[in-house]
Write a structure and sequence with these properties.
The chain is built from eight helices and six strands. By secondary structure, it is an alpha/beta fold. The chain has a domain of about 140 residues: Nucleotidyltransferase, domain 5, CATH 3.30.420. Strands 1, 2, 3, 4, 5 and 6 form a six-stranded mixed beta sheet that branches. α1 crosses α8, α2 packs across α3 and α4 runs parallel beside α8. The longest helix has 21 residues.
Length: about 280
């Protein structure tokens, strides 16, 4: 049941955000349904998951005015297994691109990786000697707006080049991107041999954006700042400040959900995206 008297949390879906998300969710199945009927509205279940992601709290420490953590975790697990948030992320990304006057699919993208620490929760992890981080690595590829195309989470000892290969192969297999021609990256992914592999295997042009070693201090690099900004967006969600998850699939699901939440708020602020 919906607790209409509870205090609103900052992580809650606003009315316009919920309307846009509801359009992207699969219709509830009623054919041959058995067992106990749905007790809590899906909107409240999602609000509870967003609360966990935004605050970083444990499932069992959800506030009592939100649905019981067991019900929330059940839906979280189900949606992780069926890839719901990756699908929602794709639909919202295409909607924003079209609203910006662009094609639904990009012609160029940017790749980068971020190493984050893990906790005492069991699961795959490794040591990134370059960043001196014991944990996991998030390999992401975004469009030129910084909107997520695909994420791959690996142990942190997976180097950028093999991780990048896995990411690009999955991108080719899982998404239909007929216009994609060019991918930018930094020097950690290697030089011409890697570019030749990308071209021969996947048919895309690979271009490294290099830093000028003569310039000291912080420098905004062309194209690379876009994907770095995306990592900055994700860091606003405390659950993503480290990797708290036992399964890498769960880590990826939370990242897709965070990007979906970011895009929902963007859509809700822009009236001409209503259709």
């Amino acid at each position: 049941m919906l607790n209409i008297h509870r205090q609103e949390y900052q992580s809650d879906l606003k009315e316009q955000e919920w309307k846009r998300l509801q359009r992207q969710l699969p219709a509830p199945s009623t054919k041959g349904s058995r067992g106990r009927p749905q007790e809590w509205p899906i909107r409240e279940i999602i609000n509870a998951i967003l609360y966990v992601m935004r605050t970083g709290c444990q499932w069992r420490m959800l506030p009592h005015d939100l649905p019981p953590w067991q019900s929330v975790y059940y839906h979280h697990r189900k949606w992780r297994q069926n890839g719901l948030w990756a699908k929602v992320n794709q639909k919202l990304r295409e909607k924003i691109r079209v609203g910006e006057g662009r094609e639904a699919t990009p012609s160029a993208a940017i790749v980068d990786a971020q190493s984050v620490k893990t906790t005492l929760v069991k699961g795959k992890r490794g040591y990134d000697a370059g960043k001196k981080v014991n944990g996991r690595k998030r390999h992401i590829i975004v469009d030129t707006l910084g909107l997520l195309l695909l994420v791959l989470v690996t142990p942190a000892d997976v180097q950028d080049k093999p991780g990048g290969k896995q990411l690009l192969i999955q991108l080719k297999q899982r998404l239909s991107l007929p216009r994609l021609r060019l991918i930018w990256a930094d020097g950690g992914y290697g030089g011409q041999p890697f570019a030749d592999w990308v071209k021969a295997t996947l048919g895309w042009l690979w271009q490294v954006v290099k830093r000028n070693d003569d310039i000291k201090g912080f420098v905004v690099l062309p194209r690379r700042w876009v994907v770095e900004r995306t990592f900055g967006w994700l860091n606003n969600y405390r659950r993503l400040s480290k990797d708290y998850e036992e399964l890498t699939d769960t880590s990826e699901s939370f990242i897709y959900l965070a990007m979906s939440h970011i895009m929902l708020r963007r859509l809700a602020r822009t009236n001409h995206f209503d259709n």
